[in-house]
């Protein structure tokens, strides 16, 4: 998958803060919620950390996402949230990306609490 193949992409992820991540998650709420079984424009992010891509039943994923073979571990989410289209070219997620490394780590820490 593009964006995950080089050592440069294995940059160290800052330690995330779930409380700060809950606040930073506000930009995600346009399309997503972190409630179990609730899909919106994007799929539910409940239990996303550690989940295989395209695994929510009843949600219509892009072909690119279905073919990605990704598992949403913290490192993969960290890269994806920075530039979704670079990591999964053709994804339906039109969001340009969360450029602030700390905010990405914080959002992931928050999402890790939703399981």
The number of strands is 0
For the sheet with most strands, the description reads: none
Beta-strand portion reads under 5%
End-to-end C-alpha gap = 26 Å
Q: Give the ordered list of helices and strands.
A: HHHHH
Shape field: globular
Helix/strand-derived class? mainly alpha
State the helix count: 5
Helix content: 25-40%
| Poorly predicted runs of 5 or more residues | 1-10
Mean pLDDT: 92
Radius of gyration: 13 Å
Fold and architecture overview:
The protein contains five helices and no strands. The chain is mainly α and 115 residues long. It has helices at residues 18-24, 63-67, 74-82, 84-87, 101-112. The longest helix has 12 residues, at 101-112. It is globular and about 30 Å long.
